[in-house]
Amino acid sequence: MRGDLPVGKGHRERLRPGTGARPLPLAGRRILVTRPRAQSDEICERLQKLGAQSFSAPTIRILGPRAGGPLDRALRQIDWYDWVIVTSANGVGACLDRARALGIDLAAARVRWAAIGPATSAALREAGISIGMTPSQYLTGAIARELRGVVGQRVLLPRTDAAPPNLARALRARGAVVDEVTAYRTVLAPARVGLRVRRLISGRRVDTVLFTSASTVRGLVRLLGRNRRALTGLTIACIGPVTAAAVIEAGLQPDAVAKEHTIDGLIRALVKTDVKTNATGGRHGANGAPH
Fold first, then answer.
1. Which of 130, 150, 203, 234 is deepest in the core (most CB within 10 A)?
2. What distance in Å separates the CA atoms of residue 32 and residue 193, rounded to the nearest whole number?
């Protein structure tokens, strides 16, 4: 289910199947998932299996690029580039969609591909595209530092229109020739999502909010407007430091930041972090300190 209805029926009394004793690690948690709708199913299902009750409230929408735009022009000359760096599965999907529309086989192109994170890599592999490089950390800064021999190399960066310019700047500083094009657009979800979230928070139906990108943070903050301070009563979990920085920029405090910047890492961090006292009347955080 979606909207303000729960996905799953997590309760504190839910037990691990077959044990009859040990509770599931997220039993009783009520978690707000802010990912775009097409990407929320997997994480909601995983949270449910761990005993949580999950609520989907997509704070942003992903829109593809217009036909005949900069991405089309870049794809038509894909063999001119030495590298394509993709930083999200959304970027991969946009490239594949436009390439199909143009009759271009990206798997046969001579260009090398670099990918940040397992989801991005998996999207490339599913399309039959070999990966020439992945960074040691799932961060744009890591790929900018670790991509070798970039002097004079022609690099295509297909990204969201909301992406910060840091990666392109860092590559240019190292001597690369960089084309940064909009592969997809990130837009704010409808206002009704903000109304739904306010209802969930004011009714104490959620105790935790998950952010999987800086865009989801900014989306929720804009949707809530003056009501953003209500988020201080919730446990805030972030997929990585860039997302956590967006939370801090919004005047809030992240309670859990994944060490591995993946959905797996985010769930592991969440399991280790208790809900805030003022969200449920329960305990302090898992590290023994009050949040």
1. 234
2. 12
248-253 long-range contacts, Cβ below 8 Å, gap at least 24?
A: 250/217, 250/218, 250/221, 252/228, 253/291
Strand pairing report for 60-63 and 177-188? antiparallel
Which residues, 6 or more positions from 274, have their beta carbon under 8 angstroms from its beta carbon?
235, 282, 283, 284, 285, 286
In what order do the strands lie in the sheet containing 154-160? 60-63, 177-188, 154-160, 83-86, 112-115
- CA neighbor of 29 nearest in space, from 276, 291, 287, 288: 276
Distance CA 167, CA 232 (A): 31
Q: What span, in angstroms and rounded, lies between the C-alpha atoms of 208 and 229?
A: 14
What is the band of 37 on the pLDDT scale with cuts at 50, 70, 90? Answer: confident
The pLDDT value recorded for residue 257 is 96
Evaluate whether 150 touches 171 at the Cβ level (below 8 Å).
yes
How many angstroms separate the CA atoms of 255 and 161, rounded?
28
Structure tokens belonging to residue 281: 């009347």
171 contacts 144 by C-beta, under 8 angstroms: yes
Q: How far apart are CA 70 and CA 152, in angstroms?
A: 22
Domains annotated on the chain, with CATH: 30-59+189-280 (3.40.50.10090), 63-187 (3.40.50.10090)
Q: Which residue has the tokens 């301070």?
A: 229
- The reported pTM is 0.79
Residue 134 near residue 114, CB atoms below 8 Å: yes
61 and 189 Cβ atoms separated by less than 8 Å: yes
Q: Are 156 and 71 in contact (CB under 8 A)?
A: no
Beta strand pairing call for 53-56 and 256-257: unpaired
- Dist. CA 283–CA 274, nearest whole Å: 7
Q: Report the chain's mean pLDDT, rounded to a whole number.
A: 87
